[in-house]
């Protein structure tokens, strides 16, 4: 393995900012992401690229998934686990530089990775967007992660507005294994993880095959208020609201009289339970010095178990007392199958490099709802339902051609991508409403209907929701780069892309780096970008249970796609692409030996950004069986500006090495314009209300910073890291209030010991001082149930772990 001369150790990882390596002893490690120059090294990229080595992360980090690791390594990266949010609590939404999950492109070995089939629509971060599930890739399979913190749509196409995350799989020989156990300070959220990696040579020269297997189990957590709900009353509210102690005493007396316990009425609010198995491979076979075949990919199966809002005994329209006399809390189960496979060939003739590949990926999300009822069936209702599924498939054929001529590198290529999106209906009882005779209710029929239809908490997909849609896109692109004695670097890129469903787009980018004095350089970039509306955004539609606009009951609401009759009646336009302009300027400095500083500012303007609207209560929607409806629309323009700072210093201290890292980010996003459908008869607060504006502008921390101290001496390694999460604001509109959550600091610690060169034990804690976001104000807490909002560091609290690492 090549030795890096200066490392920026953050959380025990090697965190390398692209221009910050000590030039005198720099080994020529090529950065794959951000350019197609086969000889461009880390110190020469004119845009910020962070390179994170995974080996030491695996030893010392409390975090066990890719998205959690990046959340504590890259300050401009954010990922928070959600709760009681349907599928979103099973796949964590992630963001970079304050943009949406669908504005970050993910690559594996430099090839585009597919997104999930899930649309986030439960008013979480990334509402209305579709991201990539980083958790499907096992940490033990990863050699390093490259994070390009700059727009790159002109190079890679749609989704690269905020930046690119490129995950490089291992190709080393030999084996390694890891055993991890963790638990929170509240004795829940138990985590078990076991992983193994093994690599062997393949063929006579430089060939390899590398296999990884990882098994994970993460237990559920409970983070609720004490429950003083009027569990047997007629109202969904606190009994004796002004005297909670009296309310609790009253409820306890009733519970005891009926021979029950308070646990029979508890809400399960916290992180979902997740079980997962992952198998990945990476291989290359050289036939000779000119021709190689390669292949990589993997399979992941994830089973989740989350919880919906509790239905109380008094809610006669949502509960069947003969089945659940004390009410019930539905359980939403998921099975998520993720498959990826790439195969390609590399050929070199007269220093012309050809790379032809086919990359396939699919994600299928299956819903099961248990401990619930279809209230319209009364006592005949089942309590378990198959609620349907959705899936997304992507296949990309790609050709890259490049040649280095003196100081110039010329690259060009083409790409053809096919995408398909499916929604499959669940069983009939999961979505239907029945009359008192057990027949499907017919609008206008005189036969009475009692109770809400469909499976409570998650209404199944109906045949009216089911669909299969596809599209394709064709692109051609070219990159030209110029390097002069490692002093001046210039990149120019252009890309033309045509989509079968909305037309063509042409984008370009110019990036420059100039070292004006030894160890002092300036870099800048400007480019245009685009993001095509995903098939999921164009066609996802369903009915779902949610809190009513008045806030005192649970009702059925709907999401309608832009091809629907409802969208046409209300005057919604067809979705079109988002367009963007990115600009950045930065400095890289080495003012002293072993001290490295980078400072980068950026501006991102997005026009016609695709979002999901607020709940629109237009009376015309009553005909579609919902209280209100939501629609995807190019509803807003946004402007994002910010700055990234990274400082690293290595210090020889008392016979060991102390690495000090300070990394910080400030990001601010503002909505600069709204686009209302011309015929829509609704006020702005219903089209895109304060709650949706809040998600875009202030629900994620504007400021985030990390100070890491990593000290290695002899067989020991010590880590102390503080992460600062800036303030956030949460707007509970339409039935809650505006609350500001104060900044918080989370402290991680770990101690590692090498018993031998092959065996390491690390113990430590994430959030050792048990820091939580501020308690929610009552108006936003769903009658006191949601004690904490899933913002900033989330609601896990302190978490303690031990990990054994082996190499062989």
UniProtKB/TrEMBL annotation:
> What InterPro entries does the database record attribute to this sequence?
Beta-barrel_TonB, Beta-barrel_TonB_sf, Plug_dom, Plug_dom_sf, TonB-dep_rcpt-like
Q: Which Gene3D superfamilies match?
A: TonB-dependent receptor, beta-barrel domain (2.40.170.20), TonB-dependent receptor, plug domain (2.170.130.10)
**Signal sequence, start to end:** 1-18
> Where in the numbering of this chain does the TonB-dependent receptor plug domain appear?
42-164
Q: Which UniProt keywords apply?
A: Cell outer membrane, Membrane, Receptor, Signal, TonB box, Transmembrane, Transmembrane beta strand, Transport
Q: Tell me where on the tree of life, at the top rank, the source sits.
A: Bacteria
Under the heading CDD domains, the entry gives: ligand_gated_channel
Q: Which family does it belong to?
A: Belongs to the TonB-dependent receptor family.
UniProt protein name: Iron complex outermembrane receptor protein
Origin species: Chryseobacterium geocarposphaerae
What lineage is on file? Bacteria, Pseudomonadati, Bacteroidota, Flavobacteriia, Flavobacteriales
């Amino acid at each position: 393995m090549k030795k890096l001369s200066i490392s920026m150790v953050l959380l025990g990882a090697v965190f390398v900012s692209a221009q910050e390596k000590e030039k005198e002893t720099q080994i020529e490690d090529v950065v794959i992401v951000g350019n197609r120059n086969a000889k461009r090294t880390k110190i020469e990229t004119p845009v910020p690229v962070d390179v994170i080595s995974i080996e030491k992360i695996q030893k010392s980090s409390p975090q066990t998934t890719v998205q959690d690791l990046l959340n504590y390594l890259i300050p401009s990266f954010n990922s928070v686990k959600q709760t009681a949010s349907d599928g979103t609590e099973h796949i964590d939404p992630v963001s970079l530089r304050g943009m949406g999950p669908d504005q970050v492109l993910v690559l594996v070995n430099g090839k585009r990775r597919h997104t999930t089939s899930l649309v986030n629509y439960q008013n979480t971060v990334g509402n209305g967007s579709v991201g990539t599930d980083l958790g499907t890739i096992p940490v033990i399979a990863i050699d390093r992660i490259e994070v390009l913190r700059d727009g790159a749509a002109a190079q890679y196409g749609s989704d690269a507005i905020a930046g690119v995350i490129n995950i490089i799989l291992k190709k080393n020989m030999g084996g390694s294994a890891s055993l991890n156990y963790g638990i929170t300070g509240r004795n829940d959220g138990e985590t078990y993880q076991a992983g193994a990696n093994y690599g062997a040579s393949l063929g006579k020269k430089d060939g390899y095959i590398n296999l990884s297997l990882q098994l994970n189990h993460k237990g559920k957590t409970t983070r609720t208020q004490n429950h003083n709900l009027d569990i047997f009353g007629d109202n969904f509210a606190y009994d004796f609201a002004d005297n909670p102690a009296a309310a609790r005493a009253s409820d306890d007396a009733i519970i005891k009289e009926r021979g029950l316990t308070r646990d029979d009425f508890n809400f399960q609010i916290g992180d979902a339970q997740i079980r997962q198995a992952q198998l990945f491979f990476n291989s290359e076979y050289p036939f000779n010095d000119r021709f190689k075949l390669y292949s990589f990919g993997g399979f992941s199966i994830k089973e989740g178990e989350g919880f919906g809002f509790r239905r109380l005994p008094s809610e006669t329209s949502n509960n069947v007392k003969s089945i659940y006399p004390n009410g019930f809390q539905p359980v939403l189960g998921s099975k998520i199958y993720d498959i990826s496979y790439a195969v390609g060939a590399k050929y070199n003739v007269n220093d012309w490099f050809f790379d032809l590949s086919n990359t396939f990926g699919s994600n299928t999300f299956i819903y099961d709802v248990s401990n619930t009822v279809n209230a319209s069936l009364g006592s005949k209702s089942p309590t378990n339902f198959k609620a349907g599924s959705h899936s997304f498939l992507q296949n990309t054929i790609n050709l890259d051609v490049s040649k280095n001529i003196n100081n110039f590198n010329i690259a060009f290529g083409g790409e053809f991508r096919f995408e398909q999106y499916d929604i499959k209906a669940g069983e009939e009882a999961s979505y239907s409403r029945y009359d008192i005779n057990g027949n499907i209710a017919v609008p206008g029929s005189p036969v009475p209907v009692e109770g809400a239809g469909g499976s409570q908490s998650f209404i199944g997909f109906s045949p009216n929701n089911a669909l299969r849609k596809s599209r394709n896109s064709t692109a051609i692109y070219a990159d030209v780069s110029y390097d002069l004695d490692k002093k001046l670097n210039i990149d120019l890129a252009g890309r033309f892309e045509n989509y079968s469903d909305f037309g063509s787009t042409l984008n370009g980018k110019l990036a420059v780096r100039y070292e004006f004095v030894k160890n002092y350089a300036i870099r800048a970039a400007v480019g245009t970008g685009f993001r095509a509306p995903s098939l999921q955004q164009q066609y996802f539609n369903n009915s779902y249970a949610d809190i009513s606009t008045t806030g005192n009951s649970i009702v059925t609401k709907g999401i309608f796609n832009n091809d629907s009759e409802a969208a046409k009646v209300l005057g919604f336009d067809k979705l079109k692409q988002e367009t963007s302009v990115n600009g950045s300027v930065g400095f890289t400095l080495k003012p002293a030996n072993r001290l490295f500083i980078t400072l980068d500012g950026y501006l991102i303007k997005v026009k016609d950004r695709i979002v999901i609207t607020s709940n629109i209560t237009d009376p015309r929607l009553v005909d579609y069986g919902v209280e209100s409806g939501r629609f995807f629309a190019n509803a807003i323009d946004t402007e994002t500006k910010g700055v990234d700072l990274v400082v690293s210093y290595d210090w020889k201290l008392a016979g060991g090495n102390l690495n000090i890292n300070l990394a910080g980010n400030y990001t601010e996003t503002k909505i600069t314009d709204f686009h209302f459908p011309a015929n829509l008869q609704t006020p702005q607060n219903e089209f895109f209300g304060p709650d949706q504006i809040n998600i875009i502008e202030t629900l994620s921390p504007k400021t985030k910073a990390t100070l890491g101290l990593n000290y290695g001496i002899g067989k020991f390694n010590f880590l102390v890291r503080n992460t600062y999460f800036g303030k956030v604001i949460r707007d509970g509109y339409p039935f809650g209030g505006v609350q500001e959550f104060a900044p918080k600091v989370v402290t991680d610690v770990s101690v590692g010991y090498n018993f031998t060169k092959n065996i390491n034990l690390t113990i430590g804690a994430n959030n050792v001082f048990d820091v939580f976001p501020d308690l929610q104000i009552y108006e936003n807490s769903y009658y006191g149930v949601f004690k904490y909002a899933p913002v900033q560091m989330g609601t896990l609290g302190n978490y303690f772990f031990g990990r054994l690492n082996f190499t062989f």
